[in-house]
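Hi U.,

Before I forget, here's the chain from the pilot set. I'm dumping it here mostly so it's searchable later in email.
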Amino acid sequence: MSAASLRTRLQDLYFGEHETARRFRYGLVAFDVLTILVFIVSSFAGEARWMIVLDLVLAVVLSLELAARLYAEPARRKMLLSFTTLTDIVVILSLLLAAFVENLAFLRIVRSLRLLRSYHLLRDLRTGSPWFRLHEDIIQRTVNLGVFIFIVTSVVYVTQHAINPKISDYVDALYFTITTLTTTGFGDITLQGQAGRLLAVVIMFVGVGLFLRLLQAIFRPNKVRFECPDCGLLIHDIDAVHCKHCGRILHIPDEGVS
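Structure:
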C-alpha cells in the first residue's frame, strides 16, 4: 500500500460517514475506556512487573494511534498543538517513564474528556440512535459528572496511596471522594500531610459546589432539546408551550412528571 493510499484510508476511517468508519471511531472510544480501566486495576496490582509491561504496550499502541491520527489530519500543525494531542503526548510519556520513575499514568484519565466530546462521535450517535438524540443533554451531563468524580478520585489516589495507609487502592480513594463531595464526611479516612489537607480543602470548597451542580443538572434539567418545526430553535425551557423565537405552539413530549 502506497503512502498516499494509506493516508486516504486513514482519513476515510477517522472522518468518513459510513458504517465502518463509525465502528472504527467507536473502537477508539472503547480503547480510551480500556486505558481508564487499566489505571483502576493497576491500583490493586501494586508494583507488579506485568503492570510495567502493560504500560509499555499501551504506550506503543497510543503512539501508533496518535501517529495515524496526525498522518490523516489535513490541518496537522493545528492538531499537533490541540489540547487532545498534547494530552495524549503527556500520557504516552508517563507510560514510558513508568518503568523508571513513579508512575504518572493516571494522567491518561484526561483522555476520557474525549468521550462524547468528539464532533464525529456526537454526529455518529445522533445519526444512529434516536434515543441518544432525545437524551443527549442528560447523557453528556452524566459523562461530565463521571469524568469529574474520576479525576478527583485519581488525584486523591495518586497523591496519597504512597503515604496514607488508609488509601491503598482506587476504591479507598473513591470512597473518600464520594463521602467528601456529598458532605457525608464519616471521618474514617483523612488525607495526610499539608498537601493532603490543602487538597481536601479544594475538594470541599470547589468540588462540593460543582458536584451538586452537575448532579442537579442530571436529575432536574431546566432545558429540553426539541427542534421547532418553523424556526429550528433547538433548546427550550422544559415547560415551554411556545417557541421563544417564533411563537409557534410546541408539542414537546412530556411524561407528566414535574
